[in-house]
Write a structure and sequence with these properties.
The complex is a heterodimer of chains A (115) and B (116). Chain A has no helices and eleven strands. Chain A has 115 residues and is mostly beta strands. In chain A, strand 4 and strand 5 form a beta hairpin. Chain B is globular and about 50 Å long. Classes of the chains: A mainly beta (115), B mainly beta (116). Chain A binds chain B through residues 4, 31, 33, 35, 40-45, 48, 50, 56, 90, 92, 96-97, 101-109, and chain B through 4, 6, 9, 32, 34, 36, 41-46, 49, 51, 90, 94, 96, 98-104, 106-109.
């Protein structure tokens, strides 16, 4: 079982460059999320999607955009990278509320460094 | 607003000793509670969860957590740790969010370091 797959696993960007992180899940989950993990701050929600074609802002959405054109994929874009976006990014997916009450399945993470 | 506080950022312990990782939450509504574990260079994995029923929940690898509603706590315990338990542990609560979605709120994490 592949579960949740993130690509790439590592990336170094120069300030101002753009990139897209790809998340793919094969569990037919409705909900998908992008988190960033920073030391001492736990995981913070960037954007989420409750279904194909829908996206919404989380706690820290500034500087990021997302798209969910297909149910299994959730893309996170950085239009103009900044050093403050240096972080580890995690994608997760879950069933809708009422089925597993928020239990999420995580990818392996993408370590992004912006120099 | 809901929040999760993990009271210890790091917990060093010797192998075969007991350990407790503390988690407190604040919420004005009923919540579901989770502990996730993150091994080095990996994503988060669900360790155990409390949804309803018995307030003591157990994992397959010997961890247990007890939901205490009056103290709004969900502490994680293991009576005897192994080197392989070295990891970062995250407490999380699932609370209702807009549009019927349940949102996961994470604590800052506790790094458990087991020494021989």
């Amino acid at each position: 079982n592949a579960g949740v797959t993130q690509t790439p696993k590592f990336r170094v960007l120069k300030t101002g460059q753009s990139m897209t992180l790809l998340c793919a899940q094969d569990m037919n989950h409705e909900y998908m999320y992008w988190y960033r993990q920073d030391p001492g701050m736990g995981l913070r929600l960037i954007h989420y999607s409750v279904g194909e074609g829908t996206t919404a802002k989380g706690e820290v959405p500034d500087g990021y955009n997302v798209s969910r054109l297909k149910k299994q994929n959730f893309l996170l874009g950085l239009e103009s990278a900044a050093p403050s976006q240096t972080s580890v990014y995690f994608c997760a997916s879950s069933y809708p509320s009422g089925q597993t009450e928020g239990e999420a399945f995580f990818g392996q993470g993408t370590r992004l460094t912006v120099v | 607003a809901q929040s999760v506080t993990q009271l210890d950022s790091q917990v060093p312990v010797f192998e075969e000793a007991p350990v407790e990782l503390r988690c407190n939450y604040s919420s004005s509504v009923s919540v579901y509670l989770f502990w996730y574990v993150q091994y080095p260079n990996q994503g988060l994995q669900l360790l155990l969860k409390y949804l309803s029923g018995s307030t003591l929940v157990k994992s397959i690898n010997g961890f247990e957590a007890e939901f205490n509603k009056s103290q709004t706590s969900f502490h994680l315990r293991k009576p005897s740790v192994h080197i392989s338990d070295t990891a970062e542990y995250f407490c999380a609560v699932s609370v209702p969010f807009s549009g019927g979605y349940n949102k996961l709120i994470f604590g800052a994490g506790t790094r458990l370091a087991v020494h021989p």
